[in-house]
Design goal:
There is one protein chain. Helix 2 packs antiparallel against helix 3, helix 2 crosses helix 7 and helix 5 packs across helix 7. With 170 residues, this protein is mainly α. It has seven helices and no strands. The protein has one domain. The two termini are 18 Å apart. This is HymD protein. It comes from Natranaerobius thermophilus (strain ATCC BAA-1301 / DSM 18059 / JW/NM-WN-LF).
Length: 170
């Protein structure tokens, strides 16, 4: 029974973090605000919930954003590469953070940037302004989001631990 409770708890927290991430998208703020927020939520999810939950969030956010009209139609062909970039960001951070958080953020950010930059330069055809948006700004928003995640995750973990303790009646 304990395993079922853990699974329900993890699913609930993943849904909560997905909802928070989507809320940032729905605000339709400029990329320099939305990008760091989304990237921060990806890494906060990785730190608190684990990389599998973060990968789910990283896959769903661009798809939902496209379906809801937040990502404009010219970005449609980029969605698989956005997902790939998110997954690289999450996975590399997850493994490298065991060595050093700063190194993990740097390498994960560069990998995300590289995946998107290579995609728009060599694989998919998108308008020039979209291609520009999917290159260097991605590196900056990933780096900033990573540092925001490092700052906020201990506080969010503590808050979730308190909620878990109260939910268990302790």
């Amino acid at each position: 029974m304990k395993t079922a409770n853990v699974s329900v708890s993890m699913l609930t927290k993943t849904a909560l973090f997905l909802g928070i991430t989507l809320a940032f998208q729905m605000l339709a703020l400029p990329q320099y605000l939305t990008g760091p927020a989304i990237n921060a939520m990806l890494l906060i999810s990785t730190i608190i919930l684990g990389y599998k939950s973060a990968m789910v969030i990283g896959a769903l956010t661009p798809v939902i954003a496209f379906v809801r009209g937040i990502l404009a139609p010219p970005l449609g062909p980029a969605i698989p590469f956005i997902v790939l970039g998110n997954w690289l960001y999450v996975i590399l951070f997850n493994y490298l953070s065991k060595i050093n958080n700063i190194l993990a953020i740097a390498v994960a950010s560069i990998a995300k940037f590289a995946a998107l930059a290579i995609a728009v330069r060599l694989v998919i055809e998108v308008p020039p302004q979209v291609a520009q948006m999917l290159q260097f700004p991605q590196l900056i928003t990933a780096l900033v989001g990573g540092f925001i995640a490092l700052i906020l995750s201990p506080y969010l973990r503590k808050a979730l631990d308190k909620i878990d303790t109260k939910a268990r009646g302790q």
